Amino acid sequence: xxxxxxxxxxxxxxxxxxxxxxxxxxxxxxxxxxxxxxxxxxxxxxxxxxxxxxxxxxxxxxxxxxxxxxxxxxxxxxxxxxxxxxxxxxxxxxxxxxxxxxxxxxxxxxxxxxxxxxxxxxxxxxxxxxxxxxxxxxxxxxxxxxxxxxxxxxxxxxxxxxxxxxxxxxxxxxxxxxxxxxxxxxxxxxxxxxxxxxxxxxxxxxxxxxxxxxxxxxxxxxxxxxxxxxxxxxxxxxxxxxxxxxxxxxxxxxxxxxxxxxxxxxxxxxxxxxxxxxxxxxxxxxxxxxxxxxxxxxxxxxxxxxxxxxxxxxxxxxxxxxxxxxxxxxxxxxxxxxxxxxxxxxxxxxxxxxxxxxxxxxxxxxxxxxxxxxxxxxxxxxxxxxxxxxxxxxxxxxxxxxxxxxxxxxxxx
Length: 413
What we know:
Blueprint: E1 3-9, H1 15-19, E2 30-31, E3 34-35, H2 36-45, E4 50-57, H3 62-75, E5 82-86, H4 91-100, E6 106-113, H5 121-128, E7 138-146, E8 151-155, E9 158-163, E10 169-171, E11 175-178, H6 179-192, H7 199-204, E12 209-214, H8 225-234, E13 239-255, E14 258-259, E15 262-263, H9 278-291, H10 296-299, H11 312-325, E16 328-338, H12 348-359, E17 366-371, H13 377-380, E18 384-395
Parallel strand pairs: 1-4, 1-6, 4-5, 7-12, 16-17
Antiparallel strand pairs: 2-3, 6-11, 7-10, 8-9, 13-18, 14-15, 16-18
């Protein structure tokens, strides 16, 4: 397998912030109820292609970090594996410790600084879209911004040279690499005692090309107290939105009944072009509605032969992918199944778990109800089944997490 994992770097000492009077290390600063590093983890965990996170912490804080993440997982679960490991003296030492802890099935790695919590899901989706483009010559993909200021090379407060800013870019994280390439780059750097400030530099040192994609102005690295103030003032308010979805299927067709990805043994059969999962169809429509992206019939028409018998989880995953590109963050799902038969209570918990796995939401952010219509209408006369979905979401500006600064609630240790 070539799954994608993240190495999240939270092992810094925050020396510049400490000199300015903030004694708490920035990765543990509390913003809107969660430490800074957890905001990056939450955003990354919502991207379906990402299968797990290795987070590096200062060695002296590792026990504290492990206990803290246990509590955070209870409060705001990620839905994917998250492992806390000790970092190293240098940034590249921390990355290498993370590389050593990746599972065997990991084929690609995103390296991200926990001090950059304001990246967008859209940026990550853009980076990982290059996973099939890596070759013998291309070794990595990174985000970058053109330099706006004139840049000068200086020594002892004297200008040596004015550099051509048209050839200069300020690079950011996350940075994306094939796992084997990054390991090879780190081993070469260790052998040569080559010190780098980012992983792309080490991959360049292998003689490989690095592709640059557009970065984000708000993907700021928190380094000084002024950064904290600036981010607080410039953080726009996310826009809430609600999507509604509705779907119906008639009983008596050739398809076995499936609801929320769960086969219903002994249930009525349905007429459908795909697998006929009425619940996933309604949920897909609700997510598309939040994105302003039309309906399921526009994107996955029943006239298309490739969708015949297709699992409806594919439609739902595609709708989630479209939502991520639009910086849409789901916050709650409310589902109602209306049917006289079959009895659905035994399957509700598994349906909820399936939806949580696909969306990245925690179980308490998903509600499922089943009801009858007391013999009335087509559902009451056992002619069919219908589902209603309401999705609540937040539309973010590119690069914004909607996090407010809260320095009064530090996690002291």
